[in-house]
Structure of Methyltransferase domain-containing protein:
Amino acid sequence: MKLTKTTIDYLKGNKFSNAYSYPISHPEKEVLYRMDYIEKLVENKHILHLGCTDHIPLIKEKISKNLWFHKRLTQASATCLGIDIDAEAIRYVNEEFNFSNIIEHNIVLDSPRQEITSKNWDYMILGEIVEHLSNPCEFLKSIKEKYPTIKRLIITVPNAFCFANILSSFRHNEFINTDHKFWFTPFTLAKISIIAGYNVESFCFAQTLPRTKKTWKGSIKEMLLRKKPAYRDTLIMVLINE
């Protein structure tokens, strides 16, 4: 989806409404899946993958099931440089699986790295990061100021409108990762991105993973997610750094 000029005016503060309504999705023929969708975007591109490792006990199993995202991005792109602060995890994937395309770097606190600043990058992937931050707007500003050679950011966050949230609230419950600081909608994610100095190129809704078992409940849910994409569990937004 693209944002209209009217919506952008509201996002930039040129207009105000305390009850603004705008379209965020339309029925689709197929359900989008997060990794598949991003792989197509970055195919044969030069990319940075921020927060690219994982919890060490999970990495081996994810690699065996082709679910470790850094491996898939490395295979899909022309160049993929991973960035992470977990030195132990970086050492583990290098020694155990020969992934040497990861550097240890705190993108906010550390000085800019020559490995990043010396090249032009088509995309930086920020997967499931922003919702964990106390100040995501300042985080995005820091990337923009330190690394102007990055053309676009791809941000993925849990979707505030997802079906699991609706179902939980129907049951009088909240379903939450206890480390999360925010729930994002397309408007609120676009809002902090524009405040940070980016332009929004597009956004969409995706599921995290395809279902592995064929059940009648799963078929009904898949039909619902085709007709109502905003019920999917992930929001993906592409930002232009200019």
